[in-house]
Design a protein that fits this description.
alpha/beta; 7-stranded mixed sheet
Length: 363
């Protein structure tokens, strides 16, 4: 029988579940084949650090949960090692939670849009319903009103600081939500950007609320986006079923080696110095944006990015022409929004040059 090797071959419809057939994949910043010289579209750190591997033998399978890394990370966040699960980025933590706690076709998650797109994609992938609420509700309503809207959702995702708006929810409010949902739902606090505002972390709630999960990553402030390392933090009772569905060897020897080094006392201190610099550069960028007549709105918030609304979305194309790559968004039904990651001084000077040019045109 002649085999078809081209794209004209059709997969029998009976093989593909309906929810996957209808799924809209998450479009990451790197999935678009863009070209440029200044990359400020993925909220990556502009800093690099060289790591020399201490492990040189790779013929054996790795420790599924490397103790050295668990010990280091638990010490960093003030928890016990048993309260930490290491994952392939925080994205795997999202997937594990949905797969573990939600029944396909029956259960639902709640999220507060606009927010990180992988919550929806993961739920859609597992045929789990989505109760899409608003950031306005999360920010302005009290815990009781929020929980009423959450309904019977099994998982409630709170991106904090929120991507792409930077909005923050106080840990006291998260505690109130967790208290009211203690018998019905798990509150998942995604803290990918929390190193930029560490005093606002909800990690301290884990020992008080059995239904609070915190997701963390080394991709942002730790400048290890290429390593794909995340952590799921929670009460040991909540993590027990999660461990049942973990892949046999989710953490490679190389990743564990570098992650352990990144979590050394000296490297944590270096990360915090870099965060201080980035926060200062962010304040400078926000001032430039607020002063520009080409900018309609600048969202205030936390994280290593600034999200803004341009008066004319055509200005985004002129940035690409200069080699400056930033992340366009459709927010609140409008397509003239842009998220700018905080780069180093040289990278932000390229943003300033672009901003000056479009401001001059707008005069």
């Amino acid at each position: 029988m002649k085999q078809q090797s081209d794209d004209s071959a059709q997969l029998p419809q009976s093989l593909l579940p309906e929810n996957i057939a209808k799924l809209t994949a998450y479009s990451s910043a790197k999935s678009e084949k863009l070209t440029g010289s200044t990359w400020l579209n993925a909220n990556e750190s502009p800093y690099t650090r060289e790591y020399a591997l201490t492990k040189t033998e790779f013929n054996r399978y790795p420790d599924p949960q490397p103790q050295q890394v668990l010990d280091a990370y638990s010490a960093y966040v003030g928890l016990e090692p048993e309260q930490v699960v290491m994952t392939r980025g925080a994205d795997e933590g999202i997937e594990l939670l949905v797969r573990t706690f939600c029944r396909p076709g029956k259960d639902s998650i709640a999220l507060f849009a606009p927010t990180y797109g992988m919550y929806k994609v993961t739920a859609d992938t597992h045929n789990v319903n989505i109760n899409s609420l608003s950031q306005e509700l999360l920010q302005q309503a009290n815990a009781e009103a929020i929980c009423e809207q959450v309904g019977d959702a099994k998982l409630v995702f709170v991106c904090n600081p929120n991507n792409p708006t930077g909005a923050i929810v106080p840990s006291s409010k998260i505690a109130q939500i967790a208290e009211q949902l203690s018998q019905t739902a798990i509150v998942v606090v995604d803290e990918a950007y929390i190193e930029f505002c560490p005093e606002l972390s909800a990690v301290s709630l884990i020992n008080d609320y059995t239904n609070v999960v915190v997701l963390r990553t080394l991709s942002k402030a730790f400048a290890l986006a290429g390593l794909r390392t995340g952590f799921t933090l929670a009460n040991t009772a909540l993590l027990a079923p999660l461990r049942k569905v973990l892949a046999p060897y989710p953490v490679s020897t190389v990743v564990a080696d570098i992650a352990a080094q990144a979590l050394s006392t000296s490297n944590i201190a270096s990360m915090r110095r870099q965060v201080g610099i980035l926060n200062s550069l962010k304040a400078r960028l926000q001032q430039w944006l607020c002063e520009s007549s080409a900018v309609k709105t600048v969202l205030s918030g936390e994280g290593n990015f600034v999200t803004l609304q341009l008066k004319d979305k055509a200005a985004i194309a002129t940035a690409y022409e200069r080699g400056v790559v930033m992340r366009p968004f459709v927010l609140y039904g409008q397509d003239n929004w842009l998220r700018i990651s905080i780069g180093n001084e040289q990278e932000l000077s390229e943003v300033k040059a672009w901003l000056d040019a479009i401001t001059q045109v707008n005069k």
